[in-house]
Design goal:
Number of helices: 3
Largest sheet: none
Number of domains: 1
Structural class: mainly alpha
Helix content: 40-55%
Radius of gyration: 18 Å
C-alpha cells in the first residue's frame, strides 16, 4: 500500500485557459497518475465499490458470503476513496 507521502509529487502544470498546452498537460497527468499506479482510477477501470447492503431493508439477512462482503465494504470504500481523491 502506498504512503501519503508517495502522492506528494502528483503535480502537473496548470492547463492554460485557452487550452494551448492541452497535449503537454494531458501527457503529464497520465504520467503522474501512472507513476503512482492510479491509472485505473483515471480511466474508470477501478470502479467504486458497491455497498452490498444498498437497497436492502432492515429485515434483510445476508448469507455468510454476503456478510463477508458487508463487513469488508467500509475498508474497501475507504481505500478506493483515498486513491480516487488523489487524482481529482
Amino acid at each position: 500500500m502506498a504512503k501519503d507521502s508517495d502522492y506528494s509529487s502528483l503535480q502537473v502544470p496548470t492547463l492554460n485557459v485557452d487550452g494551448s498546452n492541452w497535449l503537454y498537460y494531458k501527457a503529464r497527468v497520465k504520467w503522474a497518475v501512472g507513476s503512482k499506479g492510479l491509472t485505473g482510477h483515471l480511466s474508470g477501470l477501478v470502479p467504486k465499490p458497491e455497498d452490498p447492503a444498498h437497497g436492502k431493508d432492515s429485515s434483510w439477512k445476508p448469507t455468510t458470503a454476503k456478510q463477508k462482503l458487508v463487513s469488508e465494504y467500509p475498508e474497501k470504500m475507504k481505500y478506493w476513496s483515498k486513491h480516487d481523491g488523489y487524482i481529482k
